[in-house]
Each structure stands twice: as structure tokens, then as C-alpha cells.
Amino acid sequence: MNATMVTDTAKHYPVLLNELISIITPQHGGTFIDCTFGQGGFTEKILSYENTQVIAFDRDLQTKKIADKIFRNYQGRFLFKNKKFSQLNELKIKNEKIKSIIFDLGYSLNQIKDPKKGLSFNSTGELNMQMGLNNFSAKDVINKLDAKELEKIFKFFGDEKEAKKIAIKIIRERKKRKIDTKVLVDIIERTKKKNFKTHSATKVFQALRIFVNKEISELINGLVNATKVLKKDGVLAVITFHSLEDKIVKYFFKSLSENKSVSRYFPKTDQSETLLKLTEKKPIIPSNKELEENLSSRSAKLRYAIKKSDFYNFETDIFEKFEHLIEIENLDQKL
Ligand SMILES: C[S@@+](CC[C@H](N)C(=O)[O-])C[C@H]1O[C@@H](n2cnc3c(N)ncnc32)[C@H](O)[C@@H]1O
Q1: Atom 22 in ligand 1: residue holding the nearest Cα
Q2: Residue to substitute in 12, 37, 70 for testing ligand 1 pocket (most ligand atoms within 8 angstroms of CB)
Q3: 303: phi then psi, degrees, rounded to nearest 5
Q4: Is there an atom of ligand 1 within 6 Å of 42 CB?
Q5: Is the CB of residue 84 below 6 angstroms from any atom belonging to ligand 1?
Q6: pLDDT by 10s per residue, the chain, length 335
Q7: Ligand 1: does its nearest atom lie under 6 Å from the Cβ of 108?
Q8: Whose CA is closest to 219, among 96, 17, 59?
Q9: How many whole angstroms separate alpha carbon 211 and alpha carbon 330?
Q10: Which of 15, 97, 154, 203 would disulfide-bridge 163, Cβ 3.0–4.6 Å?
Q11: Is the pTM of this model over 0.90?
């Protein structure tokens, strides 16, 4: 086997790094917001260029340690907030300053490997799946919601064909024994036909992670608030890892780059303007070289848009468009 073909799963690779840098151009300086700091890969790369400043967010409390190290090297140019990116607008950032805002969605290697987080179906122990700053865990979801509610989560967030059967089995099993990660995987494996391409539990685990971390409302609010904060000619760049995320980003960019994006409350003269400009309709995906080095980048998609206008009183129907998904996330009120 060719040595370069072996993926080093213990190493952290920021995905689509070169492609992102060529779009946001930190070489020319400016202030950037990294909404998903993670292990600091993007932030450090941006800070390595002179005259740049980064404001970074991450909801995972563990990331603070990495941020503190970077802070020592780039004092005065780096600000870190242990907050969710949906809270971006609470920072009171002056929007004429922000040159680019980036989102690198999904999970970092540190998080996947952390047994306490229980994000992977290979974990053992209690069900959890919290990224950070959560109000409930996967354990609450599996133990407190009814069969219909669990079915909805598995079906709409995981596209799981056997959602109903799995939900019913969970309800039956939880009366008899405690459901931890291993028991949940066992229930799924006993319900579904074996598929040799992907693990049987992949879809249910994805669905639970999305629900526990309210990823749909986080993403939609994050995109809306980022668009407000960005300056004219600024770039909004998003890397997604699953089709649901990509669908939301694609819709948001498309709808705001067509005429309907401008608020009806603006004078007629502004009506021909659109808020965003798309230069590429298709997403940017990892090169063969990147795939050889880091196989887990294979589902990454990068989309970006440029803000054309200084005003930000735009209208978006994104909340209505994805209302059915937001309603499912709101089932958390029962927990
Ligand atoms: C794929 S990692 C980012 C990796 C980073 N670009 C790097 O190069 O190290 C995604 C990060 O986003 C964070 N995250 C996900 N959703 C978030 C949210 N709603 N608010 C803040 N941080 C979030 C996760 O905790 C995780 O650390």
C-alpha cells in the first residue's frame, strides 16, 4: 500500500484550508470571525498573516485551553468566546470591521475521541453527545421522549428508514434495562439489515447529535446573525459535513442572492439590490490529495457568498422554509 494513502486518524487536519484561505484572503489583513474555533487550525492560519485579527467562538468548554495558548502568541490580535455562534450578535461588533466570517461545522477529532462526550457509536458508557453549553443529553432524549417523537428525530435528522421500528424497540427496552451507548447500538443492529458500507447506527447517531445540540436552529440563527455582522464586500464561508446542513446553507445563500431577499420595508429604489452575491453555484470539495491525507474530509463541502450591501435589514424566509425541522428541535421543551 502507498504510504501516502494511509489516513492518520490521530492527527488534526483543518479541512479545505488552502481553498478557504484563497477565498477570505487574510494576506491583506483585516478582522475575521471564526465561529467554530475547534482546535484552532483556521484561526492560527489566519493569525499567521500580519495585520489580521480573529474573534473566535466555540461552545465546547475544552477548546478554551487551546485558545489560551494561541492568545499568548498573538496578544492584542485574538479574542476567544466560549459561546454558541447563534449568539454572535451579542458581541456588539461593529459590522464595518468584519471582513470575513467562517463556519467549519461538525465535530473536531478531539470531540469524537472524547469517551465522555459519547459522540461515536464506538464509545462505551452513558449516552451523552453534548458539544458544550447544552441543557440536556442523548440520555434524556432516549429515556423521556415517546416513540412518535423519537421516530421523527431519527427520520428527519438521520433519514433513517427504520426510524419507527427502532423507536418502538427503544421504548420497549427502556422499561427493562438502562440504555447506554452499547445497548442502543445493539438495539439498532438487531432491528436493521446489515449494510457493509456504513455502520447500522450511523444515521440514528447523527440524528441524536443534531437534536441534542440543536444544530438546525444554531446554523440558521448563526447564518442570519453572521450576515448582519459582516461588512460590505465581506465573505461568509461555510463548510458543511452532512446533507441537511448543506441544504440549509445552499437555500440561505440562494434566496438572499435573488431579488426576493430585500425587505419590503425598504424604498422601491433599493428593490433591485440583493444582499448576497454568489460567484460559484457548486460547492468546493476536497482535492484528491486532501482525501489521500485525510479520508474524513470526504463529505466536506465549502460554500461562500459575498455581502453586497451595507444595510442588513433583509428578509429571509429560511425560518419558514425549515420550520418542520425547527419544530422537531423544539421537542426539547419536554425534557
Ligand atoms: C470541525 S470543528 C472546527 C475545527 C477548526 N476549524 C479547526 O481548524 O480546528 C467544529 C467546532 O465547532 C464547534 N461548534 C459546533 N457548533 C457550534 C455552535 N453552535 N456554536 C459554537 N461552536 C460550535 C464544535 O464545538 C467544534 O469544536
Answers
A1: 58
A2: 37
A3: -125, 145
A4: yes
A5: yes
A6: 333 333 444 567 899 999 999 999 999 999 999 999 999 999 999 999 999 999 999 999 999 999 999 999 998 999 999 999 999 988 877 666 999 999 999 899 889 889 899 998 988 889 999 999 999 999 999 999 999 999 999 999 999 999 999 999 999 999 999 999 999 999 999 999 888 888 999 999 999 999 999 999 999 999 999 999 999 999 999 999 999 999 999 999 999 998 655 555 655 555 557 889 998 889 999 999 999 999 888 999 999 999 998 766 678 899 999 999 999 999 999 99
A7: yes
A8: 59
A9: 9
A10: 154
A11: yes
Cell (9 digits) for 266:
425598504
Ordered by where they begin, the domains of the chain are 17-110+215-314 (3.40.50.150), 135-212 (1.10.150.170)
How is residue 149 written as a grid cell? Answer: 417523537
Place of cell 447564518: 223
Q: Which atom of ligand 1 is nearest to the CA of 38?
A: 27
